Amino acid sequence: MTDTKRVALAFSGGLDTTVCVPLLEEEYGYDEVVGVTVDVGQPDYEFAEAEETAEALDLEHYVVDATEEFAALCFDAVRANASYQGYPLGTALARPVIATAILEVAEEQGCSGLAHGCTGKGNDQLRFEAVWRDSDMEVIAPVRELGLTRKWEQEYAAERELPVEGGDEGKYSIDTNLWSRSIEGSELEEPGYVPPEDIYMWTTAPTGETRELELSFEEGYPVALDGETYEPVELIETLNDIAGDYGVGRSDIMEDRMLGLKVRENYEHPAATVLLSAHEALESLVLTKEERSFKKQVDHEWSEKGYQGLVDAPLVGALEGFIAKTQERVTGTVTIRLEGGQARAVGRESPYAVYSAEAASFNTEDVLGGIEQNDATGVAKYHGFQERLANRAIEHGKE
Ligand code: ARG
């Protein structure tokens, strides 16, 4: 046992990770492969597939539940209004959670190596390795390092009689977790190709139906739906179900990947869309104009690091200092209407509302220090003063 070399593999039971199992022994000199599947809210059949394939491969296999941790990170993302080019970051946020869980299993199971089945084109190799390269383990990416193609993998699997059902996993490449479902590949790669309805599993095309939901937040964290308290995982699952039926949360974007590639991506993310719209609506009620505009920059930087899979960066910690301070007042309730594929805020309430009915309507003359309507006269006289001076100077200069 002492000299046995063991490697932990991020394992899904798909073609890439299945061919990695024998390759880690044959090409990388490991005696034993430990497959690890991390639960971040994938559908049940994905676990069934992983279990079945692991059994058929006689692979030592562990399933780790990281749903709560992942949901907590998604809620941090809500506080940061996080999205990258219109994508609320499901895959990107899940990767560091998955990588960390695998590293823990690897340590417990006496492994000296960590492996993933990502290709050399995508973002996920970078996100996994950013976590793993902080350990003493050997990091291995067989698909990338051996230059494997899908065709080669299919032939290899057939030759070795690996349990991959001929390597046919359906037309598209799908990545699903609590926060988003991503669909890519096949004809969808062509930016001009209009996606057929059947790529969607979480959302149905919007009908004329509408529904209103009441979302409550405490310090920027979503806590209740229609007055009922929910744990994060439950709330996300419930909102995916409800809002998906109204076609909410579809996006079709040209995404700029970290390595420079531009890729066409389709996503579904009903819960993320509802929570992000509600959260922003509440912020618009309680934050000052300057806070809102500065926070846009903070949120943008948070989202960039989120996309890169670097949520542990010192920058993110610093940004979260600002975010936490602003979120102290992001407590209240937002009414969201699901309508025509949109989740639109139609009402908002908070004890911290900066809005004041008296101030807006001048119903009393004594709002904060006795300001009266007529006090605006001086402001109105000055407004645009410098612009008028400058425009005159321009006219004079021409003469
Ligand atoms: N492009 C997205 C990202 O980097 C998601 C990719 C998901 N993978 C997939 N096979 N659909 O975050």
3D structure, described in words:
The protein is an alpha/beta fold and 399 residues long. It folds into three domains: 6-169, Rossmann fold (3-Layer(aba) Sandwich), CATH 3.40.50; 203-261 and 268-287 and 329-349, Argininosuccinate synthetase, chain A, domain 2, CATH 3.90.1260.10; 365-398, no CATH class. Helices cover 43% and strands 20% of the residues. The longest helix has 20 residues, at 289-308. The termini are far apart. The model has no long low-confidence stretch (mean pLDDT 95). The protein binds arginine.
Would you summarize the structure shown here?
The chain is built from 14 helices and 14 strands. By secondary structure, it is α/β, with parallel strands linked by helices. The relative contact order is 0.12.
Bound molecules: arginine
The helix tally amounts to 14
H and E order:
EHEHEHHEHEHHEEEEEHEEHHHEEHHH
Number of domain units: 3
Helix content: 40-55%
Which helices and strands appear, and what pairs or packs with what?
Elements: E1 6-10, H1 15-26, E2 32-39, H2 44-57, E3 60-65, H3 67-79, H4 90-108, E4 113-115, H5 124-132, E5 138-140, H6 142-145, H7 150-160, E6 173-176, E7 181-184, E8 210-218, E9 221-225, E10 228-229, H8 232-244, E11 250-256, E12 262-268, H9 270-286, H10 289-308, H11 314-327, E13 332-339, E14 342-349, H12 357-361, H13 376-382, H14 385-398
Parallel strand pairs: 1-2, 1-4, 2-3, 4-5
Antiparallel strand pairs: 6-7, 7-12, 8-9, 8-13, 9-10, 11-12, 13-14
Bound molecules: arginine (ARG).
Name a few traits of the molecule.
399 residues; Rossmann fold; single chain; alpha/beta; 3 domains; 14 helices
